[in-house]
Specification:
The protein has helices spanning 13-28, 49-80, 94-104, 119-125, 128-135, and strands spanning 4-8, 32-39, 84-91, 109-113, 140-143. By secondary structure, the protein is of the alpha/beta class. It has one domain: 3-Layer(aba) Sandwich (Rossmann fold). It has a five-stranded parallel sheet with strand order 3-2-1-4-5, with helices on both faces. The protein starts with a strand and ends with a strand.
Length: 144
């Protein structure tokens, strides 16, 4: 059985562990990694047209920077190791975007790393993992 495994990736140690876990699963099933980086972005509806244009320009710069700084090296590593890999870099709410990417790619699973946030911090600020497991369209694995 082959399938696509969406991996939430931000370059952190926990994201790397999640990627390693996903690679093992994908190899075992002759699957594909969909490496996904989400840039949090809040829509401001009260900006002037000039401010919106400047914000759009910064957004494009951030996408390019994320591709170069976070994705390029790890994608090359995965391809050198014989893995099939696709990438997605998007703006928005992380759990929502990961779920959307999983649907669009007909993924069999979403895999993310636990960020190590304290229990109190997660209660106050919310947690990607908590939101993801409640809203994801496919099974999720949170790698410690």
């Amino acid at each position: 059985m082959s399938g696509k495994f969406v991996v939430g990736y931000d370059g952190s140690v926990s994201a790397r562990r999640a990627l390693e876990f996903a690679v093992d699963r994908a190899r075992a099933q002759n699957g594909t990694i969909v490496l996904t980086h989400v840039l949090e972005w809040s829509p401001y509806s009260f900006l002037t047209p000039t401010e919106l244009e400047e914000r759009h320009k910064r957004r494009k710069e951030e996408l390019t920077r994320a591709e170069e700084a976070i994705m390029t090296t790890v994608v090359a590593e995965l391809k050198d190791a014989g893995m099939t890999v696709e990438t997605e870099i998007r703006y928005g709410n992380t759990p929502e975007i990961l779920g959307r990417v999983a649907k669009e790619h007909n993924a069999v699973q979403i895999i993310i790393g636990r960020d190590g946030q304290s229990a109190i911090g997660a209660r106050v600020f919310g947690s990607v993992a908590g939101a993801l497991v409640q809203t994801a369209p496919v099974p999720c694995t949170i790698v410690p």
